[in-house]
Amino acid sequence: MKEQISPRYFPPREKGATVLTGSVSFCTDMSDALDGGVLIYDEQDNVCRLPFSPQGRRGSLCALNVDMSVTDKHTYLYYRGSQTFLDREAKIIVGNEEWGRTDEKKLRGAFYLDDFDWGRDVAPNIPWHESFIYGLNVRAFTMHASSGVKSRGSFAGVSAKIPYLQSLGVTAVELMPAYDFNEVETITDPANGKESSRLNCWGFKAAHYYAPKTAYAGGERADHAFKSMVKSFHKNGMEVHMCFYFTPEISAADTLAILRFWVLEYHIDGIHLIGHGLPFALITHDALLSGTKLSYHEQDYWEDMPRYANTGLFRDAYLADVRRLIRGDEDMTAAFMYRQKDNMPGRGVINYLAAYGGFSLFDSVAFDKKHNAANGEKNRDGSDKNYSWNCGAEGVSRKKAIVALRTKQIKNALSLLFMSQGVPYIFSGDEFGNSRHGNNNAYCQDNDTGWVKWSKSATSQELLSYTRMLSVFRKSHPILRMKETLRGLDWQRCGYPDVSYHGAEAWRPDLYPISRTLGIMLCGTYAKYNNQCADAFIYLAINMHWQKATLALPHLPQGLVWQMAFSSYEGASEPGLKKDSILMNERCVCVFISAHIDN
Predict the structure, then answer these.
(1) Is 277 helix (H, G, I), strand (E, B) or coil?
(2) Which of 12, 133, 421, 490 meets the CB 3.0–4.6 Å disulfide criterion with 63?
């Protein structure tokens, strides 16, 4: 660099490179190294070498400050002796712009300038009970040519799908790790010792946690690209959540600092913590993060759940119970009774049928076994517990009966999801039957297997229309998205409990292990539109037996009758005005709603 720069030394404060007015401060952990410092590069790659000094050292942290005006063209590295290394706290990474490069990358840190115009950006702050979350991988979501977006596999590509997501009624997108990570991994074949490279498309690994992934920026500055995406979602009244996977070496203090940074600088609305041994209590007690939705999986932090507000719990058992129910397993009706009403005041119980790991929703009705051979691990990777049923043929089938059954089974699963209390979560493509070809661990499949294929087939469009209908129906009925847990009691003394259960006889559910039928009635008196008019009565009728079955329709207050709202089976019959039961087709879900007798 042409200019002469003289560093000043102060006690360490914030780690990383911090741009101040007319100066930059650096701070990093140098362990026991005595010979170390900073290398600053200008646009012509001229370098200025700035050594650390004992004056700026406290413990293993070293810091210095230099008077200079940096631009987005300046980059930097740290050095220790003769070795250079990338700043773990770098807020922008340069050199990782091209996805999947297998040659040696020359990565450097760049300077975070905080020059983005947020305008009047306001967080939507959507309550848990009003939420509908849509999970996605930034690259896989729009990388397939069928996505129809210009900047495929990018933050801008996600933004381009906002109208589509709005048509689904989605209130929040949840991104798989979108901070910068090295997607190229080197693996060694134990049989011959040969090395090869493969891609890790998911990002659940050690990473540069402060920096948005440059390969997702579509040629823009990564920080601006991510912020533009968030701003677009907020403008349309939708939230942006992101998954964070912290490896064990990341300290509790660093974990908290990273999350605070993303909330402050990138305006994210939700954090999905994945991993073990994370400082959950520290995070939930932080005042800055108190307005941010924090979610996690039930097996990770179950003991901590009752103590913290504004947290969301991914119910992993919901997936297993619903898949087993629609498969026709025994002893599942009682389990679903609990899952359907499971809720926690002020918190979010997040129900999901499929996610990035495991079978997609379509594959759960098309495959009995995982088909992961393409991952190069001899089909040993991925879970063997998928709770799936292929409906009579493994994989792709053109038989009309099998296609129809699979379509109905997906509708059954989606119906139960949207008719359950709590927060519905759908992973990208499951709303129209996207398949991963039976691969239940597609982390390394940067191809047709891992990408969302935006199918226009008749079956896909049928499923998509059905999902949209379910979303509208749920939004139209507050009794389906209560703030509090349903009690199963007539606590308002209106003559009906808030939720009740029925079988072949009204008010008498059949909970024997061999039962595969269940009726659930929700009394709309307990939920009001805009705190004024009461909601309707809603009756969810479930028959997961392979034979037809009769379910009772409980009597309604005088002047009301049951009308069918929708069914997963198009040939379902409407009950007459005087009928108090319905003959349900095999493997079918029907939903009825109360209506005035003169309608």
Answers:
(1) coil
(2) 12
Looking at the structure, give the CATH architecture of the domain made up of residues 16-110.
Answer: Sandwich (2.60)
CATH 3.40.50.2300 fits 499-596, yes or no: no
Domain boundaries, the chain: 16-110, 132-290, 309-476, 499-596
DSSP string for residues in 92-142: EEES--STT--SPP--EEE--------TT-------GGG--EEEE-HHHHH
**Dihedral angle of Cα 239, 245, 250, 252, to the nearest 10 degrees:** 50
Structure confidence by residue, pLDDT tens digits, 414-455: 999 999 999 999 999 999 999 999 999 999 999 999 999 999
Element (H or E) spanning 26, and its range?
A: strand 23-29
Helix/strand/coil (H/E/C) assignment for every residue in 523-552: CHHHCEECCCEECCCEEEEEECCCCCEEEE
H/E stretch holding 465 reads helix 458-476
Please tell me the distance from the alpha carbon of residue 444 to that of residue 7, in angstroms, as a whole number. 45
CATH 3.50.50.60 fits 132-290, yes or no: no
Average the pLDDT over 279-292 and give the result.
90
pLDDT (average), residues 251-256: 94
Contact indicator for 452, 140 with CB cutoff of 8 Å: yes
**309-476 and 499-596 share one CATH topology?**
no
* Pair of tokens at residue 314: 């991914």
Q: Supply the mean pLDDT for the chain.
A: 93
SS3 assignment for 473-530: HHHHCHHHCCCCCCCCCCCCCCCCCCEEEECCECCECCCCCCCCEEEEEECHHHCEEC
29-75 residue pLDDT tens: 988 767 899 999 999 999 999 999 999 999 999 999 999 999 999 99
Classify domain 309-476 at the CATH class level: alpha beta
The mean per-residue pLDDT over the stretch 399-422 comes to: 97
CB atoms within 10 A of CB 118: 11
Distances in Å between the Cα of 474 and the Cα atoms of 163, 306, 416, 423 are 19, 27, 11, 11
Euclidean distance between CA atoms 434 and 452, whole angstroms: 6
Q: 423 pairs with which residues across the strands? A: 350
Question: pLDDT tens for residues 550-596?
Answer: 999 999 999 999 999 999 987 666 665 457 899 999 999 999 999 99
**Which has more pLDDT, 427 or 279?**
427
Report the distance separating Cα 249 and Cα 206, nearest Å.
Answer: 9
Q: Quote the pLDDT of residue 574.
A: 64
The torsion region of residue 228 among left (phi > 0), alpha (psi -120 to 50) and beta comes to alpha
